Amino acid sequence: MTLEPGSLRTPLCDLLGCEYPVILAGMGGVARAELAAAVANAGGFPTLGMVREAPSLIVSEIEDYRRLSDRSFAVNVIPAATEPGLLHQQIETCLAMEVGVFSFFWDVVPEAVAQVKEADALLLHQVGTLRAAREAEAAGADVLIAQGQDAGGHVHGRTPTFDLLRAVLETTALPVVASGGISNGKGLARALSFGAQGVQCGTAFLATAESFAHDYHKQRVVTAQGEDTVLTDGFVLNWPKGSVVRVLRNSVTESFGPTLMGHDPEMIAHEVIARDGPIPRLRQSTDSPLRTTTGDLEQMPLYCGTGAGEIDAIVPAAQRLNTLCAEAQARLASARQTPTVGPT
């Protein structure tokens, strides 16, 4: 498949400075400089996943990214799940390094929105409910990312992706991006036909050569189908109580039996099952296996969206982006050529 320049371009591309309306999700630990630069250089819009990371790592990742790409990028932090002092340092570090685009998620924290907007930065705010979409817009967000329950990783709402997308589009004039279960061109074409200005993809880019995810995680995504995923709040250590994630089934989720929800972090034993260098990783924590992780990877949360069935190989990020966009172009072109039957 070949890409036709400009055929997928939306106003979002002009706003963010990219060629294709595909955003790399700011996956914590996974979306680091190598992956972000690969997506950017292929024409997508990248997000560095810096969730609760130290300012020193943020600096080094931004520096690494800028050595690999000169294109615009965003930094993802999660205000509602980050200690306020660290959050302030994260944002100030980004602003000192002239980061012009931020991506937020989870509950809307107006003070954090104000901090980036006062610096004239663009803000993409991912939301899981119509209420959160309204709150993010009122706080000053520039773009809304409507994340449905089909997404891998942390999931804030319980509405299917395209149902939420439709509802958000009906209530805002801001650019809206669809996120959740979109791993191929069919999903991108459908989102654009609904009126979205783009899509955000996580799982599709997790299973790429440049992703910082562990090869074990990537291979599990490649062999999975959407029905192999579950929503659970059982991986909750180091996140607020009730935080739900979509993961691949494993021995931990099987041990929950029918009780996938209702896990209290105060009642969960702190059992070390893996390490990233000297840093211990706990059973039922939110830490997924990275390139640097050793230990019992099978028991760790393997984040994965329902679009996993469309992913059958680990490929370079540019190849995945190009294939996705070419498929979308072909579908949209076919739809435009299909004659419509008028009323009789």
Question: Could you characterize what this model shows?
Answer:
- The structure is a single chain.
- With 344 residues, the chain is an alpha/beta fold.
- The chain is 35% helix and 16% strand.
- Helix 4 (84-96) links the parallel strand 3 (74-76) and strand 4 (101-104).
- The longest helix is centred in the C-terminal third of the chain and has 21 residues, at 317-337.
- The mean pLDDT is 96.
What order do the strands of the largest sheet run in, or round the barrel if closed?
1-9-8-6-5-4-3-2
Number of strands: 14
Rounded mean pLDDT score: 96
Give the N-terminus to C-terminus distance in angstroms.
38 Å
Secondary structure: helix percent = 25-40%
Which structural class fits the helix and strand makeup?
A: alpha/beta
Shape: globular
Number of helices: 12
> How many strands, which pairing sense, and closed or not: the largest β-sheet?
8 strands, parallel
Uncertain stretches: none
Q: Percent of residues in beta strands?
A: 15-25%
Helix and strand sequence: HEHEHEHEHEHEEHEHEHHEEHEEEH
Cα-atom radius of gyration: 19 Å
What is the strand and helix layout of this fold?
Blueprint: H1 11-16, E1 22-24, H2 33-41, E2 47-49, H3 55-68, E3 74-76, H4 84-96, E4 101-104, H5 110-117, E5 122-127, H6 130-139, E6 143-147, E7 153-155, H7 161-171, E8 176-179, H8 185-194, E9 198-201, H9 203-206, H10 215-222, E10 229-232, E11 244-248, H11 251-255, E12 272-276, E13 279-282, E14 293-295, H12 317-337
